[in-house]
Specification:
Three copies of one chain form a homotrimer. Chain A is an alpha+beta fold. In chain A, about 25% of the residues lie in helices and about 40% in strands. Chain A has helices spanning about 20-30, 60-70, 90-95; strands spanning about 5-10, 15-20, 35-45, 50-55, 100-105, 110, 115-125, 130-140. Chains in contact: A-B, A-C, B-C. The interface of B and C includes residues 42 and 43 of B.
């Protein structure tokens, strides 16, 4: 019998970069009585993203952030919207280039992530802050 | 009791830039008898995107479009596919860098958008045109 | 009566570029007893993407890949993570700039793709390899 479950997590970030979410999300899934279904995550912000990426070598996360810093540098004179800081508009651009929501099949209580895939919250502002993540699971 | 609902909206755009979708999508959701569930939107085009971004300062939308125009400029000599206009291949690239579908939890009839999040159709062609959006809601 | 269906496809790629997935995914959908619902695809890798793009002129796919090769070139001295080859970190970047999962409404057994939309697996490594795709369909 299909049923659905809702939750919200608050993730404190410590500044720009990738913060792993795999464990807190997996913990919530384990508490849901359903085992098989579809998980959807939605990050309720416009200057941070959700990303699935390599969870083995931490240099991959360092290099991803370095690439985005070069592509959308802080203090770019292109921008008009600068009142909230010189890293604010770059953070919106980085968010637009990635995503704030994603959906994943779940089998036997586990997300269908590949061997090398981890789930990350990518903070794009230089200063850390609490980020709110809405979770939805429909399954049986 | 879970049920699902389908709809299609046609959105007329007026040229390149972000066109807000939050209200027309929210109106359709309010007409659905279910209150809690999962909403999925799919844009049936290859030269326009769906985006969740800041809905407060309109300069953010202006700056997002300015960034994408610099990143993937019209008339770029890199491209072979130019028959449909010098803004056509840049529009495909901008679509590939963003997304044409997204899924959002819905609670009590409202999308789980954050305070500053709005839902946008991003037209990437210079000329406006009608764009077709497929909607799906599963809930109870 | 809503029900859900799971599957996994292994897609052999032949090197960097877009490989069409529309037919194998449509074939699996036709085998599912449900006709209307929501399809979700998740690619279980960190150096290849899922993309919905134009299926008419093959030059579009050539130009998309050319743009990404210029944006995130192989052998970029920016990267620290280089042990797996000079195309490995660019492949992670290209994956971050696109997506590994997507959800689509399905009506009467057919994905709600637009006239010009095809579904692609985008291999970002120069060497082809088998890629695993998790599929989920909830419908009735």
């Amino acid at each position: 019998m299909l049923a659905q479950f809702f939750h919200e997590l608050t993730i404190p970030t410590t500044g720009r970069g990738l913060h792993e979410l795999t464990d807190p999300v997996a913990r919530w899934l384990r508490q849901c009585p359903a085992r098989d279904g579809l998980l959807t995550l939605h990050l309720r912000h416009t200057s941070a993203s959700l990303l699935i990426q390599e969870n083995a070598d931490p240099d991959v996360r360092r290099d991803l952030d370095a690439f985005f810093q070069r592509l959308a540098p802080d203090g770019d004179p292109l921008y008009v919207h600068t009142l909230e800081g010189d890293d604010d508009m770059p953070a919106h651009v980085r968010t637009a280039l990635t995503a704030v929501n994603l959906s994943l099949p779940v089998r036997d209580g586990r997300m269908a992530l590949g061997t090398w895939q981890g789930l990350y919250l990518w903070e794009h502002r230089r200063q850390g802050q609490p980020r709110r993540l809405a979770l939805h699971f429909i399954g049986e």
